[in-house]
Amino acid sequence: MAEELGDAVVFLRGDVADRTVADTAVATAVERFGSLDVVNNASVSRQKPLEERTDDDWALAMDTGPYATRNFMLTALPELKKTGNASVISLGSGAGLNGSPAGRQAGTARPSRISTTRSAKCRTTARS
Question: Which residues is 87 bridged to in the sheet?
Fold first, then answer.
């Protein structure tokens, strides 16, 4: 994919729960493309009924969801404010509103991520 897209993309590898990964990703985007216009927050979770979820299952959902969103938002907001026309996209699902027969941790993690995104919007809009 990198060969096909050429200079239009940069691939980075890291643990999004680690704040330094967010710092590196934002700095790389700004250095490579001149500004930051969009941040996309997504997450990972394991599909298991509640009674089968381990601490590691919960940690995966929380680390890649709310914690990663926080990390990227804190790092990206100063750059996003500079553009004056930036976007933050946070993906969610019906599991956050209605629950899920599969007992997805995403039903817990995603609403938190979306709330963080909305709160950041309220703060930046109020200060504009």
Answer: 38
